[in-house]
Amino acid sequence: MAVRSTALPRGLSVPDAAAEGGGPGGRKRKLLAAAAALALIGIASLTLGARPVGLDTFLAAVTAFDPANGDHAVVASRVPRTVAGLLVGAALAAAGAAMQGVARNPLADPGILGINAGAALAVVAGIHLFGVSGPAGYLWFAFAGAAAAAAAVYAVAALGREGATPIKLALAGAVLAGGLGSLTNAILVSQQETLDRFRFWQVGTLSGRGFEVLGTAAPFLAAGLVLILGTGRVLNALALGDDVARGLGQRVALARAGVALGVVVLCGAATAVAGPIAFVGLVVPHLVRLLVGSDYRWVLVFSAVLGPVLLLGADILGRILLPPGEIQVGILTALVGAPVFLALIRTRKAADL
């Protein structure tokens, strides 16, 4: 009863003021700064590349587009790629933050629960059995595979009296990911044509994504983001432990299922659009906690804003390092994300959930 009389039912978290980023005013200022960084990286994505475009030309292309102008056409050609980076970055980062919260595991990401493995196997099956080609066709298979994998992991972890505990979720996910990965490799090594199609998608890229693909995936990404961003209080309660969460009135199994649904929608759609991209959902939430603390009402929002900053930044870097060619964004996020994450986990604060 003493717990119910404290501030826990309102905030469902009791971090100190410093860990919370200096209070609501400080967090709001940081959110404005994050939004400004997102706007700047969006402009950079439209202007930088193998053929850079000046800021004055960019403004002219936005305000008075001339299809006959080559520089204007370059800016226009980069719009779908930039939009894809915004949507996929927000989806992966928000999904990663939610997964870390629901599993109470600082290393949780779309791979630890087997979601990426399920999406990949479904895409390979679609290519091999139905001749599916292109991200628009991959979407439905990736979404179905991610949903089936998440349901299987949760069903296995829920067996027993304790239900789907964080440890059981992680173990079930690791086992399922290994099994699905083996099935995927078995198909790929026996079918050269399937391997040739799959390997370009598997690297992870934002290039070649038109508005047809984005239009198909955008409703799922938007719905998933709305669902996940509304689970901040639920994740705050789950972070206190299942017993405390139940004492605060949470239906733990239902809460985890709701968060898992949002994660599946986001990961399935994002993976279908850009392929499996690593470290965005792992690194960004930890960076966010360094900025604003562990309140998931803010962690989720900041992750959705800063995820695209990391993804588009890696994409820009891949375009300018080896012109006129480019390094795919999935490779850059791994190269940049791995050392950053290793530095983060050396600090106790970064590992706290």
UniProtKB/TrEMBL annotation:
GO BP annotations, alphabetical order: siderophore-iron import into cell
The primary location reported for this protein is membrane
List the Pfam families.
FecCD
Question: Which keywords does UniProt give here?
Answer: Cell membrane, Membrane, Transmembrane, Transmembrane helix, Transport
- Identify the InterPro entries for this entry: ABC_BtuC-like (IPR037294), ABC_transptr_permease_BtuC (IPR000522)
Query: Record keywords: Signal included?
Result: no
Q: What is this protein called?
A: Iron ABC transporter permease
